[in-house]
Design goal:
The structure is a homotetramer. Chain A is an alpha/beta fold. Chain A contains eleven helices and 13 strands. Chain A has helices spanning about 10-20, 40-45, 80-90, 105-115, 120-125, 130-140, 150-165, 195, 210-220, 255-265, 315-330; strands at about 1-5, 25-35, 70-75, 95, 125-130, 145, 170-180, 200, 230-235, 240-250, 270-275, 290-295, 305-310. Chain A starts with a strand and ends in a 16-residue tail after the last helix.
């Protein structure tokens, strides 16, 4: 049994981590912290866990997280960069679900996140936790930067095309739609039911923090800078991300996109390439650690349209974090992650 | 008072027409037909109209529609092309909310709609009822082809750019999201609440019937063929269309897009260009005859992002039809169309 | 034109008041206040009002509300009791949409609302603004206490039975379901989309503040104390209240409930008794100032089931407030309140 | 491994059975039938099952269901009564998720269901599959009539009170709210997204088929006829039932309701009595085989209010069916039923 701790378990990624870890056959949750809710039984805040998780939230100051083998940070951005180094130094392996270690260029990170990085020395050592690209490095990683939800859906969707060098890389477009839980469990006006229900809107068109993360990931794969227009939208559903990706075919125009995708992801347990002509819906991955992808070339033209769906809280956050943990600790990658999606 | 009739008033565009016309100060609804529901009081099917609309649905065979000055067809595709000509011949002016007369190329229409056109001679005479482009022609029209919902949002969004010749016209992209009412009031599995709620999906990526309509409209404006990738999505909301439009700037790269849009729509009562940096949400036009538009140029790059929202049942269907009627009959264009959007 | 002011226009009842008043043919809105948003154009906060309401929010300290003929308080509980008296003294007529003047027993009010009443002398002068009961008094009122949303639906539903003395009054039951907008436009966790969507729950079963208000109203009608169990529920919709009311028939068991209700409300413009056997849905009154009621006596037993629906923001708040204003100023009661419900 | 078959797997209870059985460690699904979809891979209809369920739907005429040890009927009412007897005769144990064998009084059943019963001789042998009441009989049963969704929530909620004889039994009230999936996966107008979303309504107030089922169950427990008013409502959510139950306390007025409920369900794995003062929400059991209950006595009066929530597709249908199967085959009752509820 792997002894794990969770820092900051009161948000949606926190409770999703708890759901997955509480059902994981090789994990013992030994500690979960929350500054504001120390002392409260976890199951009081999240009645879904009644009878299954008997821990109380602990004060971060007194929790013995260094007795864990793995610690997940399910905190807002800017917390892990302060607290992770001490744990890492004491030998704990850390998976950060926030953005602190995702961007290699510390200067760029500081611009997008509006704070000074507290542990830039760890940025270089952090491994970007997208297993479909970085599996080997994750296995050895002491610190994993778990990808953002949008970046997971977009990178997996573009990956085979960019690897194969088959599309123009200067004008990729990612039009992405997210369920409201992506905004987190925070009391904010914009995500009230009466504001977000029966409504749809784009946001952050001038620039969203996930843009540099996606650009970095695709540029690494391409081994050259990639140009990307990224437009996120708020959708009146709880969970789910649907990425609609547009890429123009390069000079070599006759290739089998469907076969390319099927080949690329053949051995991936958590990426499912749908049959030609499909349209994945977000509920097909609801509550499951899966990315489903369909590829289209409308009217045989030179524009490819890739559809990529994930559950933002699972493959886009907590599920991918557990997948990373499985890899880091040498477990079969699917351990504890075989739940079927919930439909309807 | 204009005497109006409605053919096929049992769908969502039908009941929306009734809502608008029943409150229109210059209209008398004299007849509404439905083959299946003849004899049923309209207010029995739509309790919202109790006490306000006292008509019964009439059998189309016996309804005296030729006593009307204007007849709206709120029927499925393929009905108006059979029934409108007789009315037109007897001097009635017709507004077809279906697609029968939208595509000038009858051959292309037949391919996309899978039927033989029954009155191709009227296609040439029909005026495409997008007032912001065709106001003068609508004024004189005997037959108006009311635009589709997607085509309204997309064409209005691209219009100033295409008119000004400022963007590459071969690779326009329209990523559009529609509320479920756009699928009509038909008992179908895919639009059941339990299928469409808390879910999001693209559909018809290989080709949607609104593609040729949009392409035709933009090509006319551009006076050359336009290339368009059009991806519609089903969104878990009742009303609303959100078009996210992508266009690459052409050689002349320094111009003020915001000013261009404001100038183009300055005199339009039903197009509202939002201040720079805005993100319109669909509810801002819910139940109102309005298109709201915002323009973006992320990070000052060469890709423009235009956001365009309408209520698919109002500016995307019934409201635009009433707007066309107002123009045809010389009324102030806003008559009966001043309802404020309903928020929240 | 009646010069009106609004205190606290940033909540949902505030924006709904603005929607109704901006379309009211006999009203000029001269001032709207908000402490936190003074200086902000109203249409910036609520884009639905762009081009139609050109006011800025004003600081309550400097707004000249005493130049108004009528002032609406769309504030949280406990504001009007401080600010209304000065306006009243200067001759302004006041309609309070909050609860400050609804409960005649100041002691009981203080217990339920947890504060000391600042102007108990005005409580006795306030008229409870349910026109269907109090029309004559409202006409002369200087201060109208606009009823709560639940109390409106429940009192109108029970009214004919209680007036007629036909049911046992000690064990009335009101099982009531409200849309989330009833909780107001406040950044709170419990009404986030991700908490309230696809979910249903009762709340405040031990005691809700609307209980004494309903009990007071029904007891006045009955001229004796009434026993009521009141259970409110949070429903994943934006607008709408559905009250399911249970009353046991008294000794006189043969009477025509349907006829009783139709007779009672025959002359009421805003109460619609549906045909026998009906089930009103909340959308049948969405955005309209209406209460629709259906009466049932399942299997001919001794339990009556009354179904009563309103839009909580219209007949349950802003619409009823405008109705009261119309009465107070001698206008036809329906002036500015004839909008048809929005379906779908 | 228990070899199981499913008759009629294309509805929501069918796909939920598949989700649970595909993850059940002691089950092998050997056949699933559908007349209309024979030959179609199950995973084509339900992409959530891709890679996990490799069966095709089989024609009921040729499927070898008699090779199964257990067969679930997830069919519309009136199918199992024809097809189950032959399977039963060949030694297969049958769990019917429809209503065919729920009502012991065949005459009453025929009245409510509007058809002649095809196998009344099996009605007497069928065991009503509510484990919390009938566990011993279920263990030996050849034919289990799996309870309806409403009846499960209502009976479990009233059970301790009725067993203890502490409330008046002539006027029980069950005001129950259901998610739309309770209406099944059928193309019907009333359950379209655009009809059911952002809307709420009661239905079948004059009489619903679950009324006699609940009455029968509670009357058996009480050993006397029970009077019940049952009002179901359609709620804009996918899954979930919330029963709000009202019972008047009898002469013996001082007892501890909370303790009564906790004692009664102490050993039940799938009934969770919440702490005093709680309000369970339906999502706390979403996708989990659980009934959560809270008990209230508002203001210390003589009316008890019981809140009981289930997921209509799990504890209200497929989960309870698997629970019954576990009991019938001597497995630990929780086998394959330990999934945590999905929140948010």
């Amino acid at each position: 049994m792997i002894k794990v701790g969770i820092v900051g378990g009161t948000g949606y990624t926190g409770v999703e981590l708890l759901r997955l870890l509480a059902q994981h056959p090789q994990v013992e949750i030994v500690s979960i912290t929350s500054r504001g809710d120390a002392g409260t039984p976890v199951a009081n805040m999240f009645p879904t866990l009644r009878g299954r998780v008997s821990l109380n939230f602990e004060d971060p100051a007194t929790a013995q997280l260094d007795a864990c083998q793995a610690v997940f940070f399910a905190t807002p951005n800017g917390i892990a960069m302060h607290q992770a180094p001490a744990l890492l130094d004491s030998g704990v392996r850390v998976i950060d679900l926030a953005a602190d270690y995702r961007i290699s260029d510390v200067h760029e990170w500081q611009q997008w996140y509006g704070m000074t990085h507290a542990s830039p020395e760890w940025v270089a050592q952090a491994v970007y936790g997208l297993p479909e690209i970085n599996r080997a490095a994750i296995r050895e990683a002491r610190l994993v930067a778990n990808p953002g939800c949008y970046p997971t859906a977009v990178q997996l969707g573009f990956l085979p095309l960019v690897e194969a060098g088959l599309v123009e890389l200067d004008h990729l477009i990612a039009d992405v739609k997210s369920g409201v839980s992506g905004a987190g469990r925070k009391a904010e006006m914009a995500t009230l039911f009466s504001e977000a229900a029966d409504n749809f809107k784009a946001y952050a068109v001038p620039g969203h923090r996930h843009l540099p993360e996606i650009r970095q990931g695709l540029s690494r794969v391409a081994a050259r800078p990639v140009g990307l227009t990224f437009v996120p939208h708020l959708t009146p559903m709880i969970r789910g991300i649907h990425a609609t990706l547009y890429a123009r075919i390069g000079p070599q125009r006759s290739f089998d996109v469907q076969a390319l995708y099927e080949r690329r992801f053949r051995d991936e347990a958590f990426v499912d390439v749908l049959p030609s002509g499909s349209h994945p819906d977000t509920r097909s991955v609801r509550a499951a650690n899966l990315c489903r992808i369909a590829v289209h070339r409308p009217q045989g033209g030179d524009m490819l349209v890739i559809l990529s769906v994930i559950d933002n809280l699972v493959k886009g956050a907590a599920g991918q974090a557990v997948q990373n943990m499985n890899i880091m600790f040498g477990l079969p990658e699917s351990t504890g992650l075989t739940q079927l999606a919930v439909l309807p």
